[in-house]
Amino acid sequence: MYSYEELIKRDKASLDIFWLKDESLSESENLPPPDVIAQEIMDDLEAALEQMREIVSDLGAKVDAVRT
What we know:
- By secondary structure, the chain is an all-alpha fold.
- It is built from 2 helices and no strands.
- 0% of the residues are buried.
């Protein structure tokens, strides 16, 4: 682990992570339709919420879920 000051003192120090781009997603024709993306996001959020409910339940806390 290095501090920011230690890193910036180094020759050619750069915290730029531009090279991490996923080139396969740079073209819009490779993306799924917006409704598919939205549904995948909703599925992930619902799964995460269910996992959090289980964690809270395991900890013995009452879960007061807000249903919409």
